[in-house]
Amino acid sequence: MRNGKFSLQKYNTFGIDACADTFFSYNNIDDLILFLQNDFDKEKPFFILGGGSNVLFTSDYQGTIIHPETKGITITQEDDNDVFVAVAAGEIWDDFVQWAVDNNLHGVENLSYIPGCIGASPVQNIGAYGSEAKDAIHEVHCISIADQTRKIFSKEDCKFGYRDSIFKHECANKYIVETVVFKLQKNAPFNLSYGSLNTLLDEKTATLQTVRNTIIQIRKEKLPDPKEIGSAGSFFKNPIIPENQANTLRNKFPKIVTYPAPNGNIKVAAGWLIDSLGLKGFCMGGAKVHEKQALVLTNAGNATGNDVVALSHHIQDKVKETYGIQIEPEVIFL
Predict the structure, then answer these.
(1) Catalytic one among 163, 165, 178, 212?
(2) What's the pLDDT tens digit per position in 19-32?
(3) Is 178 in the active site?
């Protein structure tokens, strides 16, 4: 544990220069339990920070940052087709995806090259290219912050929604993810229906590795490498609107990009909305809309968190003014 203005610049992919009052990292659960029992100040704010790929620090964090570094990928059970894999919260998400592909297991290949750690995957219900973490998650094993007991959440318990889960609502700040158990398959059809995948790949000849390689190629072409340009990946959620509103917008803006969503609703591509307003490359302070993907806001040079906030508000206002849609950040502001 480190007290007194610990720099978080290397722990957030935006590269924002913020500090925490207290920083605690751990690589085994016993250390976490001892910390929660003896050293954790429950009166101060706290935040569980994994890969830092979905957060924006707007100032120094006047509280405790808890940072999991636990490792381990273990097959716990399998039958003729299903394989259950327990993955520690501190594992890098994309390392797990590569492990699954290397072991010829289907279920997470469409989620290739998403930054961050395993522990965040059920909290955020990460998703891309027509797949979401919930499609593969079987259970989430957690530690109670209040009394350090273990609790297992089934897939149904997690109440997954679009970039949403129980861990953002009634269980927020009550549990720390220890392990996520995924249900993968030895054989399963590929999901190539989203975006340009169906034009780049043939389901008859596709393999797990070619699907992964193609998605990585697409993402690299659109998204900046956080090691070179600070960002948090997709900054905004794709808004979900009623079908009648979508039909009105389609009549007025025939090129608008939409996808089917649950309950008869329609998902609108937030990146298209922003791009259509000519905002690619637009700057405010040190923050900038990425030239290749309008959904990505970047640290163009010594940006503060408030520069990024100001830019995001400007984008939200412009989208609302033109399309009548309120787009919401996917990124967590701290």
Answers:
(1) 163
(2) 999 999 999 999 99
(3) no
